Amino acid sequence: MGMTITEKILAAHSGRDSVRPGEIVNAKLDLIVAHDVTTPPAVAMLKKLGINKVFDPSKILVTPDHFVPNKDIKSAELAKQLREWRIEQGIERYYEIGNHGICHAIAPEQGHVLPGMTIVCGDSHTTTMGALGTFSTGVGSTDLAAALATGELWFKVPESMLFELKGSLPRGVYSKDIILYIISKIGVDGARYQAMEYRGDGLESLSMEARFTITNMAIEAGGKSGIIPVDGIAEDYVKARSSEAYTCYYSDDDAVYTQRMTIDLDQLEPIVALPSLPSNGRFIGEIERVKMDQVYIGSCTNGRIEDLRIAAQIIKGHKVAEGTRAIVVPATTEIWKTAMREGLLEIFADAGCVVSTATCGACLGGFMGVLGAEETCLSTTNRNFVGRMGHPKAKVYLASPATAAATAITGTITDPREFLQ
Amino acid sequence: MPELPDRLTGYAHVYPREHINTDEIIPARYLNVHEESELAKYAMEDIDADFVRRVLPGDFIIAGENFGCGSSREHAVWALRGAGVKVVIAKSYARIFFRNAINNGFLAIECPEALEVIATGDQVELDLRAGLLRNLGNGREATFVPLSDFARELIEDGGLLPHIQKKAQA
Ligand code: SF4
């Protein structure tokens, strides 16, 4: 019986020839990513146990992202603890304000993610980095502490689901629509405990930026990981950023999947997930043009340069509708700078958008765009749970950056194809 | 660490819903702290604002499918434990919540029929060895798959970190 890419990576990292779903393995970790919310508690746990050294500072990457630039005194304390800890541990890969970015975006962007790696971070959207053929998954602070101390972690080998992408996306439809479509079909627990693997000729027209959006939201279907085997597009991305050697793994032809689903990209349309579940996706033609108080373009899902280019292309020469606020948040400093050089920031500013520095910010209801009671927001983020972006009575709709830009212009949920001729 | 008791009893708080997520269990606006006692004040705030006033030490939470979905914040487990919750019994769990619970030595039991035999306020007995949940008021029962050996070992060691330490010293 063959193995999936996920099984092969886990086997190779736990000194085994083969593993089967359901087995518990202890896997060596290649990269541990640490941010300001879940790392300080992990560090406190280690201190309490008298463990004063991380296993290997060169395998750790630290970036404050959730509440920075510090949103209040308590957040300042978290960022400070993170900063002091990384100095004490001699961790060199650290991205201070001014170079920082949302962890799942900055780690691959800066060349720290190589195919075949095992990666954990104390954050559920760690699945993002699976787009480069890695086993990458989110853990809590205790797991993070154990990983930092020992460089390994226990995993139950997940079963895998296979998603075959066919064809190419029509104009105005993006990778966010693909993943919202998949989640609307399988539900927020449709891939619970499983690896979501993607294949097919549909990938050929999807950039790395577009792919990260898909693997980012594996957790929104309950998935343990999302993974895309490495191809030329991924190799180009990695080689432009790192000269280190890596191993690519591929699923065997007779690998076992719990489910296979084919998605015909040509048939897709822009999708909006209605409040308050990411699985509430509907084709945009089927829903009411609800008025939006706010539009949010950013996050580890859709704050990359390609997202900003698409949004700017639509919004250029228009104004944000009266009665609507638009907030643009590049996911990393590098993206912010590229957007500046390309004139995108000016396009957004001229249209009346607020452009922020990189931060998780309002994506998790932190700051920089938190919603009040009954307010509506169309957001390019990944979750629209009750209370996610602020008041529990606020209503969050999820969509692509293009749909967000079109909606900012009209003030009601709008099909981006109306602005793309 | 003492062995897990074979039996536990407590009063039930029932949330007969699926997909209760970590934003509801402990909203992100409180994530700028990680002290259990502080987080405890806001446990379940966005789903049941009155919860922390009603919950007593040793109580059980009973819920539907995919409990704890959403973010990886272990703060969700700490908030519940800090508020006094002893056990969560759900139809099923989101992966990271379950993992965080076990890693903290906190009991998360998967019981598909719990919602059918228990209502809020009922006194419930959990027989961990037999895999049996009993409503002490009316005697109705539901079965669950007992903890795996690995999960039991982690819980009995007091969680993942003490477990690792124990192994390192062995
Ligand atoms: S941008 Fe949002 S989803 Fe992504 S890591 Fe930050 S808070 Fe989490």
Write out key terms for the chains shown.
heterodimer; A: 421 residues; alpha/beta; Aconitase, domain 3; 29% helix; B: alpha/beta; Aconitase, domain 4; 7-stranded mixed beta sheet; 8 helices; binds iron/sulfur cluster
Give the distance, in angstroms, between the N- and C-terminal Cα atoms of chain A: 50 Å
The strand order across the widest sheet of chain A is 15-14-13-16-17
Work out the count of structural domains of chain B.
1
Average of pLDDT of chain A = 97
**What CATH architecture label of chain B applies?**
Alpha-Beta Barrel
What portion of residues of chain B belong to β-strands? 15-25%
The CATH class name of the largest domain in chain A reads Alpha Beta
Instruction: Report the radius of gyration of chain B as a whole number of Å.
Output: 15 Å
Total E-strand runs of chain A: 17
Uncertain regions of chain B: pLDDT < 50 for 5+ in a row?
Answer: none
Rg from alpha-carbon coordinates of chain A = 20 Å
The overall number of domains of chain A is 2
Q: What proportion of the residues of chain A is helical, as a percent range?
A: 25-40%
Strand order, sheet with most strands of chain B:
4-3-2-1-5-6-7
Uncertain spans of chain A: none
CATH architecture of the largest domain in chain A: 2-Layer Sandwich
Hetero groups in this structure are:
iron/sulfur cluster
Mean pLDDT of chain B: 93
Please identify the structural class of chain A as seen in this structure. alpha/beta
Order of helices and strands of chain A: HEEHEHHEEHEEHEHEHEEEEHHEHHEEEH
In DSSP terms (H or I, runs of 4 or more residues), the helix count of chain B works out at 8
Summarize the topology.
The complex is a heterodimer of chains A (421) and B (170).
Chain A: H1 5-13, E1 24-28, E2 31-34, H2 39-48, E3 60-62, H3 73-89, H4 103-109, E4 118-121, E5 135-138, H5 141-150, E6 152-156, E7 160-166, H6 175-186, E8 195-199, H7 208-216, E9 225-227, H8 232-239, E10 259-264, E11 271-273, E12 281-283, E13 294-298, H9 299-302, H10 305-315, E14 325-329, H11 333-341, H12 344-351, E15 354-355, E16 376-379, E17 395-398, H13 401-410
Parallel strand pairs in A: 2-3, 2-4, 4-5, 7-8, 7-10, 8-9, 13-14, 13-16, 14-15, 16-17
Antiparallel strand pairs in A: 1-6, 11-12
Chain B: E1 7-15, H1 22-25, H2 36-40, H3 51-54, E2 60-63, H4 75-83, E3 87-90, H5 95-103, E4 107-110, H6 114-117, E5 123-127, E6 132-135, E7 141-143, H7 149-156, H8 160-169
Parallel strand pairs in B: 1-2, 2-3, 3-4
Antiparallel strand pairs in B: 1-5, 5-6, 6-7
Iron/sulfur cluster is lined by residues 66, 102, 104, 123, 125, 299-300, 360, 363-364, 381-382 of chain A.
